[in-house]
Amino acid sequence: MDRFKSTKIASILGVIGNLFLFIIKCIIGILTHSQAMIADSINSLSDIVSSILTYFGNKVASKPRDDDHHLGHGKAEYIYSLLISILIMLVSITLLKDTIISFFDDNTFNISIWYIVVCLITIFVKLGLFLYTNNIYKKHHNLLLLANSKDHRNDMIVTTFTLISGILGYFNIFWVDTVVGLGISLFILITGIKIFIESYNVLMDKAMNEETKKEVLEIIKKYDEVKKIQHFNATPVGYKYQVSFTIFVDGNLSTFASHDIANKLEKEISALDDIYLTIIHVNPI
């Protein structure tokens, strides 16, 4: 299954799963007056929007290059990931404010067996979504999928603490519910900031990671005809990079021979998973 189709399926499953969880969490949160459960339900609501943004971001990114977008539409992944991160941060700030207000009010709640059931359902659903999404991310390295897999993983952790606060509430230890609500809010905020930074770095054309750069340089080193390289540049093109650099070869080589070296290099480097396009300029030495 290709990159874009896999991401589409993951986003649809995310919408369905999170919609189901939002409904049951919201109902139980209102009935039990649990701030942690209400915070958890709002988190699921933001996850629905995130999955929808993932769907449309993936749809735009999957479009081939055209006359107006010579390098394709790959950066749409990062634009939509940026929007998801902003949404996550806004939700976390709202939850943080509501939880702080509830701390000064009557923060007791009514624990029930359904509270525990909802927590367990959430943990298992999120575990399934995390394993599926994370597996696809490892295959395709799509930042939208990374954002979603982290979201699913975080939700498992968040709901586990929500469950703990509910169990403690059964023994009339209600202050833990407020603390967990605060913890959830801060946890969501940190996740949003991390995704924002990663998306921002790509949109600002941050250089490629050292691992990929090392792979490219190792390929160049295999060619004894290349005496040195200069002006190495790597520009993000969606989830891949456009690489350009200058190679210096023996000035006595024919034009055909020197450019044949460049052509072979371009073909071999462009075959790497993270490389979209390779452009090489040849100079004599």
Structural category is mainly alpha
What's the tally of helices? 8
Give the biggest beta sheet: 3 strands, mixed
Q: What is the CATH topology descriptor of the largest domain? A: Alpha-lytic protease prodomain-like
Could you tell me the number of beta strands? Answer: 3
Which CATH architecture of the largest domain is right? Up-down Bundle
What is the overall silhouette? Answer: elongated
Sheet with the most strands: spatial strand order: 1-2-3
Hey, roughly how much beta strand do the residues contain?
5-15%
Q: Please tell me the total number of domains.
A: 2
Would you state the CATH class of the largest domain?
Mainly Alpha
* Poorly predicted ranges: none
Mean pLDDT: 81
The end-to-end distance, rounded to whole angstroms, is: 47 Å
Order of helices and strands: HHHHHHHEEHE
Specify Rg, calculated over alpha carbons. 25 Å
Estimate the helix proportion, in percent.
55-70%
CATH H-level superfamily of the largest domain: Cation efflux protein transmembrane domain
How would you characterize this protein structure?
This protein is mainly alpha-helical and 285 residues long. It has 2 domains: 3-203, Cation efflux protein transmembrane domain (Alpha-lytic protease prodomain-like, Up-down Bundle), CATH 1.20.1510; 210-284, Alpha-Beta Plaits, CATH 3.30.70.1350. It is built from 8 helices and 3 strands. It has helices at residues 3-32, 35-61, 76-103, 113-140, 143-170, 175-203, 210-221, 255-270, and strands at 228-237, 240-249, 275-284. A 3-stranded mixed beta sheet has the order 1-2-3, with helices on one face. Helix 1 (3-32) packs antiparallel against helix 4 (113-140) and helix 4 packs antiparallel against helix 5 (143-170). The longest helix is centred in the first third of the chain and has 30 residues, at 3-32. The mean pLDDT is 81.
